[in-house]
Amino acid sequence: MNAVSASRHEIDKDDRPGARPYRVHVAQRIQLSPSFIRLVFEGDDLVDFGTDGFDQRIKLLLPLEGNRWGDPDMCSPQAIQQGSWWERWCALPPKDRNPMRTYTIRAIDPQSRQLTVDCVLHSNPGPAGAFVQKAQPGDEIFIIGPDEHSIHSAEGIDFHPGDAKNLLLVGDETAVPGIGGILNSLHHVSWHGHGTALLEIPDPEDIAALNQTEGFRNAEELGFTIDWVARSYPHDSKDSGIERGASLVTRMRTYAATNQAMLNQRRALSNGSSTQPIPLESRALEDVDVDKELLWEAPESAIGRPFYSWMAGEASVIRTLRRMIVQQYGVERSAVAFMGYWRAGKPEM
């Protein structure tokens, strides 16, 4: 499976590290909507960029003040062959470590040497948000991403639906690129089933533009319903908006009420007998302090299950949804991926 617009010839893979640095520059900066910017990067080395698709994570290494790089040789052939980019970055004095932030591949076309990343605009941006807001064609950064020549090139993918034909995707604006990537990849592998995506975004004017981007515009063909809610209301409204995550919790309850029988099924037995409700002891959850710990649980396989869900966004909201779907609605933990992408008021962990 890949999410590339152009086909690729069969590539020989070996046991080299799954990710490597790529030196790229901004080719285009596109304002998709009030809350989203699309950056298209170009670089000759992107011909080797991995194309495994779904929600694959990458790292953006951002320039220090004065466009300075603590380790300008990170992309040297020797460093790439050794797979030592992380060790080299950690060995730098803190003042020389370029800021690193996590994003999701939105599209990759190795033949055109282009990588697309969609970014959320924030009112109080950190290093990544500041770069996105000011980015101009020609600006250089390093991207840590999958190496197509590695047998480990699929590292960083958390969406593992197995053969499930009933899918639920849930997320805030930070999950929109991942959900778009998932839908685009499902389209490329000709997946068909029943799916629902519950999305919460900042501005109602985001919706029309996002619905025209890759993955979302083909969602109906896949059997997906896309349900958007904006936290703010139109500018001529007297309402001030809704609390972050509130619409996701409310719509999760509605979804569960409509699909309770499906949610409370366990995997099909190996002898092919019918699915059974899962026992209460399988619903136990340890508490996660999202202010101190990373909430990240992505089971590798959901083979044999009728249902699979992927949830990502602000960590405290995802923790609430995690409790709901596992403890209240009886879904096995191994059939749901939970990712706390960020924590309100906290830097990236």
Automatic annotation (TrEMBL):
SUPFAM superfamilies: Riboflavin synthase domain-like. Residues 19-153 form the FAD-binding FR-type domain. Transmembrane segments: none annotated. It comes from the Bacteria. It comes from Bifidobacterium aquikefiri. This is Siderophore-interacting protein. GO terms for molecular function: oxidoreductase activity. Gene3D superfamilies: Nucleotide-binding domain of ferredoxin-NADP reductase (FNR) module, Translation factors.
